[in-house]
C-alpha cells in the first residue's frame, strides 16, 4: 500500500487538516518526512515530546514492559501504575491519583469530582463551575463547555449547564461571579491555546482565597504547563498556590498517551467505588513509560536547564525582532513561549507557520495572532539557534511576499 497525504483525505474524518508532508522518523529535536527532508522541532507534539523523539531511556522502558504486561482490566492494579502514582504524590501536593489516557479525560474526571464533592458535602444546588474566557480544557462535550472558546461548542449544543465564564486575570470579575452555588473554579495557570498568557501571581492567590471563602474547589489544568514545561515540575509550585485538583497529561508520557488527575485525601473519597472509570487508565505500558519520563524530568539539572534554554530562545527572538520588528511581546514561562505578532499581522500567524515548515522548522500557533514554541525540555542549544535561523528566513519570506503582492 502506498501511504501518502492524499490517503488522509480518502479515509479520515476531516476534523484535522494536517500538513502535506508526512513525518516518518524522529530523533531528539529533529524529524524527517517521507522524502527524508529534515526539520527542527519547536512544536514538541504540542508540549508533549518533553524529552524529544525516541529518547533511549523511554524506548528501553517500553521494550522491557512490552515483554511483561500490556493490559489488565481495572479489576486489577499493576506495578507500573502504583509506582507512578507514588512518585506523583511524593512530588506534589496530592495524596491520590486517577489515571486515564488524555488531558481531556483528566479534566473530565476533575470536573466530575468537583461536582460530586460539592453534592456529597453541600447538596445538589452547589453545582456551578466558573472558568475563564479563552481557556482550553479538551474536546469532550463537558470540557469544551468549561473551556472559554465558544467556537468549540458551536453545533454541539445543548451543552452542559451551570458553567460561567469570566475574564482571565480579572479578580474583580471573578468576585462578582462567584457565590455559594459555585462548586469549583477551573483555570490554567498559564493559558496555552488562548495565547500563552500567564496568570498574574496576585490574581492566582486571589482565586485561591475566593474559593476558600465560598467552599469551592480550585482546579488547575496543568495539561500543557505540567511536567517541567515552565521550569518547575508543575506551575502551581512557581505561583505558590496549591489547588485541590490538578489535571496532567501531554508531557507526562513524553508521547505515550496517558493522563492523570491528582487530588487530596479530603476530596478523593467522592469518587468512590463505581463512580468513574477508564478501560485503559493505568495501562502498564503507559505508566512504565511515564515513570521513566518523570524520573528524568524531575531532576534539578533538567528543570533548571529550562530557564537557560528559554534565555537562548529570547536572545534569538530579540535578534529577529530587531531586524524585522514583527513581535509586540514575547511571553510565557519556561519553554512554553508565545511571540505575539504586531497588529498589522494579527490573524495571519498561520502564514509564518507554513513558511517555517518550508524552511525546515516545525512550530505552533496559539490563536491567529501568536506564534508558539513548546520544544523538548532538553533541546540542544545549537538546535535552538539553528531553528531560529530558519524562523528568521521564514519571516523574511513572508514579509517579502507581502511587499510584492
Just give the CATH class of the largest domain.
Alpha Beta
Kindly report the CATH topology of the largest domain: Aspartate Aminotransferase, domain 2
CATH architecture of the largest domain: 3-Layer(aba) Sandwich
How many β-strand runs?
A: 17
Neighbour order of strands in the largest sheet? 4-12-11-10-7-5-6
Mean pLDDT: 97
Number of helices: 13
Number of domains: 2
The span between the termini is 42 Å
* Spans where pLDDT lies below 50 across 5 or more residues: none
The chain-level structural class is alpha/beta
CATH H-level superfamily of the largest domain: Type I PLP-dependent aspartate aminotransferase-like (Major domain)
Assess the beta-strand content as a share of residues.
Answer: 15-25%
DSSP helix fraction: 25-40%
Large-scale geometry: globular
**Helix-strand topology string:** HEEEHHHEHEHEHEEEHEHEEHHEEHEEEH
GO biological process, one term: L-arginine biosynthetic process
Pfam family, one: Aminotran_3
Modified residues (N6-(pyridoxal phosphate)lysine): 250
Pathway: Amino-acid biosynthesis; L-arginine biosynthesis; N(2)-acetyl-L-ornithine from L-glutamate: step 4/4
